[in-house]
Amino acid sequence: MTKRLESKYKINRRLGVNLWGRAKSPITKRETIPGQHGARRKQKPTDFGVQLMAKQKLKGYYGNIGEKQFQKYYQEAVRRKGDTSENLIELLERRLDAVVYRMKLAVTPFAARQFVNHGHLTVNGKRLNIPSYQVRDNDLIEVKEKSKQLTAVLDAAQSGERDVPDYIEIDHRAMRGRFLRAPKLADVPYPVQMEPNLVVEFYSR
Where in this chain does the record put each Small ribosomal subunit protein uS4 N-terminal domain (predicted)? Predict the structure, then answer.
């Protein structure tokens, strides 16, 4: 098991939030952080600590993206015109694995990344297995015919834990959908408060 996959079982407790809003989250049973000293009283975080936590939450939410890749998203967000924090959210939401998760074709961002990696999808009719691929407006994402009856996909589609946001459309019978437009921060259905402005402050120190 990779370090990234292994870490998902601890990330909620480490951050102290139910990051994906799942009933199975360990934070619902034990609120202390992992480790020998997890039960100690929490201290008031510094400004740096608050900014770091905001970054870790955002990285963790999208399947625990690696630091180097996350920094590239930030640099691209700075390069683009407009609000850097909104640009950052747009880049993250355009990831193919994030779109698959939003379409409810996978139960978690980790499962969505694995689903893409295993080649179960086409984008505009072409097979794609790159989770970080940047989906464009009106791109058509479809589950391959042989994969449409996979139990994991059917279970995710029928799950009542999440709703599909309005910047994405999906036909779960046909297992195909479209990325309609780039969302703003207010459009994204995060189960916890995300503060990309603090992430921008963290990197611009």
Answer: 3-93
Tell me the sheet residues that pair with 15.
none
67-109 pLDDT, tens digit per residue, is 999 999 999 999 999 999 999 999 999 999 999 999 999 999 9
Q: What share of the chain in percent tops pLDDT 70?
A: 79
69 dihedral zone (left: phi>0; alpha: psi -120 to 50; beta): alpha
Q: β-strands 139-143, 176-179: how paired?
A: antiparallel
Write the CA distances from 92 to 74, 146, 155, 193, 194, integer angstroms. 10, 28, 25, 16, 13
Q: How far is Cα 195 from Cα 117, in angstroms, rounded to an integer?
A: 29
Can you read off the two tokens belonging to residue 40?
């100690």
What residues are paired with 169 via a beta bridge?
A: 178
Give the pair of three-digit tokens for residue 28: 């619902």
User: Would you say residue 6 has pLDDT above 60?
Assistant: no
CA distance 111 to 116: 9
